Amino acid sequence: MKLALALAAITGLVVPAVPAAAAPAPAPSVTPPATTTPATPLLVARWTFDAGAVDGRVADTSGRGPALTTRTVDQGVIRFDTATPSGRYASFPTACATTAPKCPRALLETASVPNLNPGTRNFRWSARMLTIKTQITGSANIMQKGVATTSSQWKMQVGKTNGRAQCVLVGTGSPTVYIARSSASVADGEWHKVLCQRRGTSLSVWIDDQLGGQTTVPATLSISNALPLRIGGPNFNTKTDMYHGRLDDVYAELG
Question: Number of folded domains in the chain?
Answer without folding.
Answer: 1
